[in-house]
Amino acid sequence: MMLKRLLILTTVSLLTVVVATSAVACTGKKVVIGRTATLQQELLARVVMELIDKRTGTAVNEVIFDTPEAAHAALLKGEVDLGLEYTGVIGASLLSQAPTADADALYALVRKSYSADLNLMAIRPLGFENRTLAPAGSANQAVVILRKETWKKFPALDRLLEKLSGKISDQTMQEMEAKAAAGDVPKVANEFLRANKLY
Amino acid sequence: MTILNPTVSSPRGAHLAALFRRWCPLLSLLLLAGCFATPASVQYLDGAAITDAQIWSGTVLIRGVVTVTKTGQLTILPGTRIVFDRIDVDGDGIGDGELLIEGGLVAKGTAAAPILFTSAAATPARGDWKYLYLDFAQRAEVAHIISEYAYSGIQIHFCRARVVDSEFRYNVDGVRFSTVNIELSGNRIHHNTNGLRYEERRSTAAIHYNDIVANDVGIFIVTRSADQAVIESNNIAGNQIYNVKLGLSQPTDVSLPRNWWGTADPDAIAASFFDRKFDKELGTVLAPEPLEQPVALP
């Protein structure tokens, strides 16, 4: 009891508090990626985040949305800088295009429309197709979407993201998802990047 | 400056009382140690601006950003402990605690009584607090400090600084700088994500007699290096991923002569660099005249 009192008295007598205004210091550039909660999106987002962080030193945060539509809306509003979308879904839902199996033509259309109408950049496809959402008969390649406003601040970002283009085949994606489901998503993402000599 | 009274009932008093309760366990331990040794002082700073000359000793507990303004001069005595609370108001995953120096800093510990910058977390981790940040500092002399569990153990921009005989460990970036006139010597930079990270941007840098070992990446040369930084007579070895990594926008070669790389085999040394071998847009890391044995630190 005596020791407790001594501690309190000593604490009170020695503790000084200085209160003043907070200062604001530079916190460095940051990029935010939006994604949905699926394992595939979590994994792809982590690949992108690790690539940007490791190659440029720029910190990347992620925001998780309930639906692809909400993630897309956040991209348009500038709440996030990057998104992960699928060409077939874009073609059907946003561009009102009839399904097409011509993956190259569909991507070219998405790229042109996004650039002209939405001020977005559709980076060349990652390589695999997501067939679980895809409109019947349509190619549905995964693409990273980058806001042009963000690209102006990070002019090397499209060039960096292009390094992922064609690197994730259907088989690679399946294997990565299987590994990620059983364990550590950041580890799987980093293993992929290292195996492809991307950092 | 206010003496804390934990029983006051005003809103301000309630805030102070809450702070008291938050820090009480740590303070009790620190003060208990102090009661049976030499008298220890404990100062609590919650977002303070230092505009005049101050001397720190004992233990300084920091929450948020403490700024030494252009008119301020902070001297930190040997053996001082600066402990940062782990808060993350902006939710970016990096603690908000920071000591920002725009005025003067003299932080000169001794080998026997280094100055410690650390996290208050019970289980500390990299990035618990932001950094010791020298930005346009008027004067900066740093010796015999230990900086740990920060985003950057020390970050230096737009000033002249001398950082010697110190230890930077368990940070994201151990030491980070750009656009400076800097001497780094006799430092032990280990177990960080990046041991040394810099953007040269016309810096004058003399980096010698340092251990840059056991980091994920030893040296991360992010961008805009014109190969003017002199990085010589260091031990740059045993870094887990790469000893040297070039960032995306470093298209020209960078030379690091006369260092110890853990081996004198040129092929093995080159294999520990991330450079043009991996990406043709990058320059090449050159390591002429590699040393055949480790450098003895002062």
Q: Any key phrases for this structure?
A:
heterodimer; A: 199 residues; alpha+beta; 3-stranded antiparallel sheet; two-stranded parallel sheet; 6 strands; globular; disordered N terminus; B: 298 residues; mainly beta; 10-stranded parallel sheet; 9-stranded parallel sheet; 2 helices; 30 strands
Structure write-up:
The complex is a heterodimer of chains A (199) and B (298). With 199 residues, chain A is an alpha+beta fold. Helices cover 51% and strands 17% of the residues of chain A. Chain A has helices spanning 2-14, 39-56, 68-77, 87-94, 103-118, 148-153, 157-162, 170-182, 185-195; strands at 15-19, 30-36, 59-65, 82-86, 120-122, 142-147. In chain A, helix 2 links the parallel strand 2 (30-36) and strand 3 (59-65). Mean pLDDT of chain A is 86; it is low at 1-27. With 298 residues, chain B is mainly beta. Helix content of chain B is 10%, strand content 44%. Chain B has helices at residues 11-35, 266-271, and strands at residues 2-3, 42-46, 49-50, 53-56, 59-63, 65-68, 73-76, 81-84, 98-101, 104-108, 115-119, 129-135, 139-143, 145-148, 150-157, 160-164, 167-169, 173-178, 181-185, 188-190, 194-199, 204-208, 211-213, 217-223, 230-232, 235-237, 242-249, 254-255, 273-274, 285-286. Chain B has a 10-stranded parallel sheet. The radius of gyration of chain B is 21 Å and the shape is elongated. The chains are: A alpha+beta (199), B mainly beta (298). Chain A binds chain B through residues 6-7, 10-27, 30, 55-57, 59, 61, 156, 159-160, 163, 197-199, and chain B through 1-6, 16, 19-20, 24, 27-28, 31-32, 34-35, 40-49, 64-67, 90, 92-94, 98, 100, 130, 133, 135, 194, 197, 220, 222-223, 245, 247-249, 274, 278-279, 281. Strand 1 of chain A pairs antiparallel with strand 1 (2-3) of chain B.
Summarize the structure.
The complex is a heterodimer of chains A (199) and B (298). In chain A, 51% of the residues lie in helices and 17% in strands.
